[in-house]
Amino acid sequence: MSPAEQPQPRSTADVRRPTLNAVDVRRPTLNAVAARAGVGRGTVSRVINGSPKVSDRSRAAVERAIAELGYVPDRVARSLATRRTDTVALVVPDAENRLFSEPYFSGIIRGVSAGLTGAGMQLLLVLTGDAWERDRLAGYLAAQRVDGVLMMAVHGDDTLPDRLEELAVPTVLAGRRGDREGLGHVRADNRGGARLAVRHLLAAGRRSVATITGPLDMDVARARLDGYREALREAGLTVEEDLVAQGDFTEEGGRAAMGELLRRRPDLDAVFAASDVMASGAVPALRTAGRRVPGDVALIGFDDSVVARHIDPPLTSVRQPLEEMGRAMAALLLEEIAQRGSGKRGVVLPTELVVRESA
Amino acid sequence: MSPAEQPQPRSTADVRRPTLNAVDVRRPTLNAVAARAGVGRGTVSRVINGSPKVSDRSRAAVERAIAELGYVPDRVARSLATRRTDTVALVVPDAENRLFSEPYFSGIIRGVSAGLTGAGMQLLLVLTGDAWERDRLAGYLAAQRVDGVLMMAVHGDDTLPDRLEELAVPTVLAGRRGDREGLGHVRADNRGGARLAVRHLLAAGRRSVATITGPLDMDVARARLDGYREALREAGLTVEEDLVAQGDFTEEGGRAAMGELLRRRPDLDAVFAASDVMASGAVPALRTAGRRVPGDVALIGFDDSVVARHIDPPLTSVRQPLEEMGRAMAALLLEEIAQRGSGKRGVVLPTELVVRESA
DNA sequence: ATGCCGCGTGGGAGCGGTCCCACGGGGTGA
DNA sequence: TCACCCCGTGGGACCGCTCCCACGCGGCAT
C-alpha cells in the first residue's frame, strides 16, 4: 500500500505486453519518398520542414512524391531526433469534481485546445489522483518528454510546479498559488470581479452587504474577498468582520455560511458569494429564514456557471472569460517553450457582471 | 479556405521552429544504467520489461543502478522501436458544448482515465472542429501512432470510424451510430431507462404521458423513444402519436416541443423528456400554460445532470453509470488493442431512476 | 585561365530504446 | 572424458527521423 522505498519501476506499466499482434500497416517513410523523388533524405526533410535551401525542382519532385505516396511524417521518430514532442500535458486534479461539471474546465480546455492545435501541438490529458501519484508525476512527465505542462487548480502547497521547474519543463498555471507566483500563469481579475458585484449591490441601495468566501488558503478566495472589501471602502463604508463568513466552494458550505451570517447579522440585505455553487447553497438557507431573494436579500455569485442560470431565482454572477484564459495559457506556454523565461508572466483577464434576477 | 486538391502538408504545423533553446537537461539513458551496473544493454532492457530470463545477481545490480541514477525509460524511444505508443486518443467534437458542461463528458472521461492509467496508457485529448479538420484526423491519428481511439458523440453519418477501421486503428465508441454498429462501443441502456421513467409515471396514476424526444437520427433518441413506447404497451395503453414531439436536446427545443404538446393535448398529465436540458426548457412552457409541476403535470428527464438538481422543482431523472461507461470503454479498447477483433462488441450498462420532486 | 565563394545536395551519425542472434559456461547423460 | 543443452548474456541492427559535415558545381572576381 505504502510507496516502496526505492523509486523502482512500477510493474503494471512496464511488464512486457503479450505479443501485441500489431497488424503492421506500415506507412511510407521519408526514405521511400526520397527514393521516389530521386533525391536524398536530407532534401526531403528540408522540404517537409519548409527550409528555403531547396531548389524549386527538388521541392516539386518531393512534393509530388509525398502526394503520390500519401506520406505523413512520423511524429515519434521526429520526436526522438529533435528531443521535442510537440505535446503539452494538461494536469487536472482528479478530485476536483467541481472543475469538470462546471463550465470552468470546459471553457478553459477548449481555449487551450484551440491555441495549441493552431500551433500544431497536441494535448495530453492527465488526471492525477492521490498525492503519491502526483508525486511521481514530474518524473513521468519528463519521461514523456512533453514540451510543456499546463496545470489547473493548483493549491498553495502544491510542490509539483517547483519540481517541474527543476526539471526545466516549461509550465503555466491556471490561477496562481500565491501573490507572487514565480511561474507563468493566467487568471481572471477576481478582485475586480468581486468589486463589480459589490458595487452593483451598493448601487441598488443595499447597505449591509455580507460575503461568503472560499477557503482563504486559496488565492482566488482571497482575491475575491479583497475585491469585496475594496468596493465597500470605495463607497466609504467600513468593512464589518461579522459580515464575512468562510465557505469552501461547496453547496453545503454555502448553506452553512449563510446560516451563520443570518444568525450574526439578521439585518443583512445583500450577499456576495464567491462562487455560484455556494450561492446555490445560500438560497435555501435564506428561504428557510423566511427571506425572499432578491426582495429581502440580494444575492450575487461568481463563475456564471450552469447553476446560475437554472437556480430560482436566476443568479446574477461574475463571468470569467474562460476560453480566452485557455488561449492565453496556451500562448504563454508556447512562448515559454520557444524561449525560456519569456513566458513567466502573470496574465490577468477582465471579468464581467452578468445581471439576472437575484440582484 | 477550401481544402487543397492535394494532401500537401499543412505548413503551420510543419514549419521548422526557431532554434528551440532546449535547456538540455538530459536524463540518464539505458546505456548509462548498463555501464553503471556492469552489464549489457540487453540485460537492462530485460529487467525493465520484467523478463524472467535474468539472473538474480544481474537484476539486483541493474535495479540498484536504476535507483541510483533515477532512471526512467524514455517512452519516445521505446515507441519508435516497438511501434507502440501506449497512447490512446479521445476524440470529442468541439461543437458539442453540451458534452462538456454536463457531467456526461466528465464522468466518462474520468472512467476512461482511470481505466487507462491503470494499464499504463496515456490519454491524448483531441477536440475536432470543422468537418475538414475531422477529415484530416484519421491520417493525423495514424501519424501519431496512437494505439487506439475513443470517440464520443458520433453521429450516424460520421465516416471517421470507418476510416480508422481501414487504417486498422482499434476504435471504441461512446454510443453507437445505428442499431448494428460494427465497431466496439459502450452505451447506457437507454431504452430500459426510458421504460423505468414511464413506468414510474404510470405507477403514479398518470394516464396521458407525453414525450419529448431527441433528434430521431440519433440512436440514443430512438432508443429512449422505444422505451417510452414499450412501457406504455406493457401497461396495455396504446401509443398516441400526438403525445410525441421531437426536440433537439436543447433547452429551447424542449420549450418549443412542450408548447406544441400542450397545444395538441391539453389533457396531458405527464411528460418524459429524453434529456434534462429539454426538460428544463419544458418547465417554463408548462408554467406559462398555468400548469403546476408535478401537481398538474409530472415531469421526468434523462441524464441526471447538474440542472436536474438545481431546477425548480428538482427533476426526477434517469442516471447513466458514466464512470463505469468510461471504464468499460477503456477496457474494451485495451482488449481490442491486445487482440484485434476481440473488442468489437457492444456493451450496455444499466440505468437507474433518481426520484426527486418533479414526478 | 584559375581561384574562390556559396548554394544545393547526399548521406553518415546519432536520438534511446527493443529485438534477436550468437556465444560462453556449467550441468547433465553416455 | 566428450558431446549436447540450456540458461544468461552482450551487442549489432534496426525503428524513422533530424542534424550537420563535406562535396560538387556554376558564377564571379582576379
Q: Can you describe this structure?
A:
Chains A, B: It holds the Pfam family Peripla_BP_3. Chains A, B: GO terms for molecular function: DNA-binding transcription factor activity; transcription cis-regulatory region binding. Chains A, B: This is DNA-binding LacI/PurR family transcriptional regulator. Two copies of one chain form a homodimer. By secondary structure, the first copy, chain A, is of the alpha/beta class. Chain A folds into three domains: 28-76, 434 Repressor (Amino-terminal Domain) (Orthogonal Bundle); 84-187 and 322-349, Rossmann fold; 190-321, 3-Layer(aba) Sandwich (Rossmann fold), CATH 3.40.50. Helix content of chain A is 45%, strand content 15%. Chain A has helices at residues 11-14, 30-37, 41-48, 56-69, 75-82, 97-101, 103-117, 131-144, 160-166, 190-203, 219-234, 251-264, 276-288, 306-310, 322-338; strands spanning 87-93, 122-128, 148-151, 171-174, 184-188, 209-213, 244-246, 270-273, 298-302, 316-319, 346-349, 352-354. In chain A, the strands form two sheets. Chain A has a six-stranded parallel β-sheet with strand order 2-1-3-4-5-11, with helices on both faces. In chain A, α2 (30-37) crosses α4 and α10 runs parallel beside α11 (219-234). The model of chain A is unreliable at 1-22 (pLDDT under 50). β2 of chain A pairs antiparallel with β2 (122-128) of chain B. Chain A binds a DNA duplex (30 and 30 nucleotides) through residues 29-31, 34, 39-43, 45-46, 48-49, 53-55, 58, 73-83.
